[in-house]
Batch of 2 targets.
Target 1
Amino acid sequence: MNFNIIRAGRAVLHVTDIEKSRLFYEKLGFVVTDTDNENLFLRGLEEHNHHSLWLKQKQEPAVEVISYKVTSEKDIDELESFFRRQGREVKRIKAGEQPAVGQTIRVQDITGIPIEFYAEMEAVERLLQRYDLHTGAKVQRIDHFNCMVRDVETAYHYYLHKLDFACSEYTVGEHQKIWAAWLHRKPSVHDVAFMNGVGPRLHHIGFWLKDPMSLIDGCDVLAAAGYSTNIERGPGRHGLSNAFFLYVRDPDGHRIELYNGDYLTSDPDFKPIKWELDDPMRQTFWGHEAPDSWFDEASDVLDIQTGQKIALQQPKLKKSKPQFIM
Ligand SMILES: [Fe+2]
């Protein structure tokens, strides 16, 4: 069934100090659409919607929800019926209950990740050619979510066969079981990726940059502003997806990827690319190793009904990280 899911749209994260977050994300190169003592709405330079990242001040860092944009309200209704038929609890949030966004539904996906669907978001000025306002890494737009989950193979089949995503690339581990999968609705490598690990947790949110030099500029600005310890991994190039990447941790440990250089996946006869987990060129094309924190640490996610943290489960596939052989 095609629910007309367009793309990854926004994430709602809990943070413990809005002012600290604002200073960090502004330096990184996001645009602040709006802020008060308890909320910070951020977007990229080419985005014409109000925000792609909503940070809420709370006692503890967590992921409230990750959201997908759909074509129309009809798609929201159809998704709600679909999830209810599957026996899932759906939370409907009426227009006006959340700033800048129309009505939405929220549900825990098959892996336990809290997801949301919306069709409408307030329009704002697109700053693509306001070069006088471009700073830091000059973040352009949200690109994807990466989720660490117990059972990637189940997520893979559910998103492909129930929600009509397509697979661009995947990694196999022990017994040729799917260890990670990159799934898309828009014609890029992914809107969401699932990786084998302790979960459900949100591993990172990827934001698109216009070129690799913007990524280097981001590193320089972060370091000069005293944020060098927030740079966790990179710059480098992923074998998988071909992305030029940098991973940074925000003041609460939420991981943001700056990302550039993937490719077109629109053709229906595009064949998903398979990687072996221990292929050293898979994770970093140039061969250098990722730090353990990148495999071990991720953001906790919340129950859409209770607001409590979802209990973590050990991954189905034993191997939690590749063997590094060079
Ligand atoms: Fe990513």
Target 2
Amino acid sequence: MLQQVELYSALGKAEQNELFAKLKTAYAMLPQTTCTGCATCCKWGSPPAFFVEYLNMYKYVRDNMKDKWQELLRRSTEYYYLELVDTQQTCPFLGQDNKCSIYEVRPFSCRAYGLLSKEDFAIGDRGLKQLAKKFKEEYDITIPEEIVNYDLPWCGKVVSPRGYESKSTLAGLAAQIGALDYTFFPQELVDQEGTLLPYPVHLCNTVLGSGVRARKIKVMKQFCDNGNKEMLNGFIEKAIAFQF
Ligand code: SF4
Ligand code: SF4
């Protein structure tokens, strides 16, 4: 959401207001779980993170993953532009070993997945059918059926010492984390989930600037027409020069 200069000031503000400690406290209210580590949930896409969670992840990547910066920037840029048209896109933090490279700072969405019973679990309508229709009509871009129709299934393989959580508990915790974003953005925007975005969206706004969105259609179209990544590669080249 913010470019780099503003991001540095947001990081300072987060430290001053002890937002990272508050975030950690909120995360600690969730149970310690185990699962099979199949990574189905991580291959579905990049889950949304509140802005404060993005800052937390940004700081972790900056301080601990210098050797992975270029790969992360490349994968995040690809994901940002092609998530709707390329079925191969996964969360950019998923390693080849099926492990999460930022496990200790993964966002609430990842932590909460698998904690609801089958009856309570619902991804909700992501509006992809309507979006696919609009893209076809306005830009002649086809969003693959595989993407339009795929919904992340209920997991059922997460083991928690206290059983399933209630929807209200998880909604309350999400609201508590979202409220930390009031430090940076108007409450109305945060409450409408305007600061809850996939990590690659947050990162591309920081790295490639505010015009990033306007160029998305052209990149998608070029990829859809003939698998050409020329424009995309130009943005990737710019992105991988970024210093966290
Ligand atoms: S939470 Fe479920 S889907 Fe995700 S890695 Fe664990 S077992 Fe697989
Ligand atoms: S952040 Fe980690 S846990 Fe969450 S989807 Fe990505 S790889 Fe999976």
